[in-house]
Structure formats: C-alpha cells, structure tokens
Amino acid sequence: MSPSALHFPHRYAYVGTFTQDAPGGTAGGPSAEGIYVFAVDDADAVWTPVQVVASENPSFLALHPKRPYLYAVNEIDTYLGMQTGTVEAYSIDATTGMLTLLNRQPLSLSQSGAAPAHLGVTPDGKYVVVALYGGGAYALLPIGLDGRLDSVSDLHIVSGKGVHATRQAAPHPHMVAFDAEGGFVLATDLGTDRLNVFKIEQDKLHLHHQASAEPGAGPRHVAFDPSHARIFVTNELTGTLAVYGYDPATGTVLARDHVVDAPPVEKPNEPDASAVIVHPSGQYLYASHRAQKATDDPASESVSVWAIDDATGALTLVQRWTEGVVFPRALTLSHDGRFLYVLNQKNDDILRLTIAADGTLSDLLRVAAVPTPVCLVLTPRTDTDQDASNTPGAQTS
After folding, report:
1. Is the pLDDT confidence value at 112 over 70?
2. Which of 1, 41, 100, 121 sits most deeply, having the most CB atoms within 10 A of its CB?
3. What are phi and psi of 364, to 5 degrees?
4. Contact assessment for residue 247 and residue 231, using Cβ atoms and an 8 Å cutoff
5. Distance between CA atoms of 117 and 129, rounded to whole angstroms?
6. What residues have CB less than 8 Å from 229, skipping those under 6 apart?
7. Using the 8-state DSSP alphabet, how is residue 152 labeled?
C-alpha cells in the first residue's frame, strides 16, 4: 500500500495538548486532558467533538503514512518511577475516527530519555524517530506490523553547547523530518546550533552529516520545499528564518543562502519563533511567532507569510497576520493547501485561515475550542486530497 492510499471516509482532526507544566504558560482555563478528536466538515467549517483520550502531555502527534495509526510523544520527565518520557501508539477507527491505545514505550532509563518534544514516522512506516529536548538525544523505535511500538532500538546521545548562557547550556534536539525518499533524517538541535542528518541502518541511527546554524540562533523547526532541494529553518532564539540548500542524493545540508528577521520586534522582548511550514505549491512559507515577554508590538504574536523565490529560495514578506493570534505554537496546512490552521496555546482555540491564490490569509474562523492546543494532524479523507492542485486557493471536489 502506498502512502497516497491512506484515506478515510470522513476527515478527522487530532489535537495534541499540554496537560501540565506547559512551556510558556496557558490561558488560565481548565487543564487539558490529552488528545482531542474531531470530525471535520470543510464545507461548513464545523468541527464536531468525537473523543478525548487521556494522555500525559501529548505535545506532538504523527500519523502513520500507510496505515491507520497515530503516534504521540508524552513530553514528561518521569514514567512509572523511571527518569524518562514515553511514546504512545494508537489505532484509528477509520469510520468513527476514534483512537484505541495500542501500547506505550519508555524512551530511556536515564536522563537521556527526558522531555521528548517531537517525533516523526519514517516514510516507509517502519520506525518512529524522537527528538528528546530534555535528554539531549534522538531515539529510534521500530514499528510492528500491528502498529505497536517496539522498545527503543537505538538512543543517539549528542553533546555540545551554544553561546546562549541559559538556553544553550546543553543540547536540545527539537524536531525530526524526512527527505522525499526517507533515506535521511534531518534533525534540529536548538542547544548546539546544529542541523544533524542521520541515516537509519540495522535499527540504528548513524550520524551522517552536520551543519551549523548562526551562533545563538537556536534552530527549532525545519521544512522542506517540494523539490527537497532546499530547507527552511525557524530559529527560536533570534526569531529569524534561514534558507539552506540540501542535496537529497547525499543527505547533505549545503550553504546557508539567506537569513531574514521574521518578527520586527525589539530584541529585549525575546522574539520567540515557533512553527514553519511550506505550502505544497512551494511558492509560499508560513511562520508563527510568540512573545515570551510583554510587548506593545502586535507582530510579536503573529503569522507571517513569505513568498519564496523559485530560483534562489530568497524570502520576501507578503503579509503579517495578527488578528486572533495568541501565542501560536503550531501551524498546520490542509492537504489541499486551501487552509492554514493556527493553534493558540494561550487562547485555548484553533483558528482556520483561508489561503488565497497569492498566498495571503483571510477569513478567520474559530473552528475549535481546546485547552492548551499545541499540535494538529488531519487525516486525508480521499485520495484527491493528496493529489489536489498545488496552486494556493485551488478548490477541490
């Protein structure tokens, strides 16, 4: 079964949350309970609650590319008396969208397993790779044919530090991503200002290549362009966006071609970049920005829209959206590229913005109320979702 064969009779949304100790804080309302499941009606922009699954700090979620399984990191430091975070595997009922827990695996019996922040499923569906922000490591877990997670087959511990005295005193792996063929794992390390490239061989993570970000930048998240010949990195500590070349044949990060200041805020306010995502057309990039300190600059809480130069990858600011945006930790695109979803961690809601043909955003709708939302994944409803036109604003049947 190919990845494009994964589809459901209806569209479902899965929202990860912080149930405790949310970095950056909360809106002050009721605590989240775990993973929130919604049935999504795109035509009427109606999200109907389906299920709430109890889970500890399921701060990042990922769908299996070929089968109806969902995986979640539990961003915690201890589990059953052990100093470790965990990863959960769920089966998805294709008809109802409801989740059933398959199993839960600890990540390490040492500090290296603490506070997992991100995970991804390899394109072949054989492994989950986890970035352990608090543990300074990357973990590899094989996936069984029934969707269950095997125990950790490799824990790659990294070392080093950056120039920021408090935020970069140790490694802080933050995200993992995969190139088009899935041959290489691209991983950011906020603590050491590095982009690490791994290759998976015989159930092990082998460090294949390293590239350096600007000192003190704090690379957080990364996004490929559709050709996978270019990567875009959002730097949390400086609030900048950086553009790098990438060679998918060799798994090599090439020169850093461009760096732009994303939010025009005063540096003492500590611009806090969060998410970055590239439109499937490859023409536009969207980035979100939070403010850890109080500021009068509205752009410190915003989503910025950037045009991507096809020849050079250079970014040009097109729009900055601030309406309704409150500590936007995450962004998600609809499969057809028509909508951008914004998760407001400190406003307990999810916004839907319509993407026009020129990449700009409009028509704000509040589609769901969720306590401390920090991650959203959407199931493809039909094959046409993944084969839809890549033109921004294109309509699908």
Report:
1. yes
2. 121
3. -65, 135
4. no
5. 11
6. 245, 246, 247, 248
7. P
Question: Which residues sit opposite 160 in a β-bridge?
Answer: none
Cα angle at 199 between 58 and 147, to 5 degrees? Answer: 40
Residue 310: CB atoms within 10 A of its CB come to 11
Question: Nearest CA to 153 among 165, 163, 140?
Answer: 140
Distance from C-alpha of 36 to C-alpha of 52, rounded to nearest angstrom: 5
- Pick from 287, 296, 294: nearest CA to 263: 287
pLDDT tens per residue across span 226-237: 999 999 999 999
The β-bridge relationship of strands 154-157 and 173-178 is: unpaired
Strand order in the sheet with 302-308: 271-278, 284-291, 302-308, 315-321
Residue 2 reports pLDDT greater than 70: no
* Interval 326-335 mean pLDDT: 96
Q: What is the pLDDT of residue 389?
A: 45
Q: Which helix (H) or strand (E) holds 353?
A: strand 349-355
* Buried-exposed string 375-396: b where 16+ CB fall within 10 A, e elsewhere: bbbbbbbbeebbebeeebbeeb
* 306 close to 241: Cβ distance less than 8 angstroms: yes
Q: Which residues of 209-219 are buried (b: 16+ CB within 10 A; e: fewer)?
A: bebebbeebbb
- Whether the per-residue pLDDT at 395 is higher than 50: the answer is no
Polymer length in residues for the chain: 397
Number of other residues whose CB lies within 10 A of the CB of residue 44: 7
- Give dist(CA 9, CA 49) in Å, integer: 17
Q: Running DSSP on this structure, what letter comes out for residue 298?
A: G
Pick the CATH number of 1-157 from 2.40.160.20, 2.130.10.10, 2.30.30.110, 3.30.420.110: 2.130.10.10
C-alpha separations of 159 from 34, 85, 199, 204, 257 in Å: 32, 19, 18, 18, 27
Residues β-bridged to residue 138:
131, 156
Are 322 and 306 in contact by the 8 Å Cβ rule? The answer is: no
Pull the structure tokens for residue 155. Answer: 């824990």
CA 232 remoteness from chain centre? 13
Rg of the chain over all Cα atoms, to the nearest angstrom? 19
Q: Please report, for the chain, the start and end positions of each structural domain, with discontinuous segments joined by +.
A: 1-157
Cβ–Cβ < 8 Å for 299, 289: yes
**Prediction pTM value:** 0.94
Q: Report the pLDDT value the prediction gives residue 4, as an integer from 0 to 100.
A: 45
